[in-house]
Amino acid sequence: MKVKFKDVMCMGNKTYKAGEDVEVSDISGQQLIDRGDAELVKDDDDSAAKSKPAAKKSTTKDE
């Protein structure tokens, strides 16, 4: 889950700035959002990749 911190946040041994996007586990991300420390970031890359149809394979035979 990708979240954006609303304020300076220390997680583990790293300090993150306000407005910084960070990839965290789903559980950690949901806890941060529930406490109001972060907001969910929508991934444009992931949604675009999922919405594109898969390329069709050619099934023509040489005769």
Determine Rg (CA atoms, Å). Answer: 19 Å
What's the average pLDDT?
81
Percent helix: 25-40%
β-sheet strand percentage: 25-35%
Shape: elongated
Report how far the terminal alpha carbons are from each other.
51 Å
Sequence of secondary-structure elements: EEEEHEH
Uncertain stretches: none
Strand order within the widest beta sheet: 4-1-5
Q: Your description of this structure?
A:
There is one protein chain. It contains two helices and five strands, in the order E-E-E-E-H-E-H. The protein is of the alpha+beta class and 63 residues long. The strands form two sheets. Strands 4-1-5 form a three-stranded antiparallel sheet, covered by helices on one side. The chain has a two-stranded antiparallel ribbon with strand order 2-3. Strand 2 and strand 3 (14-16) form a beta hairpin.
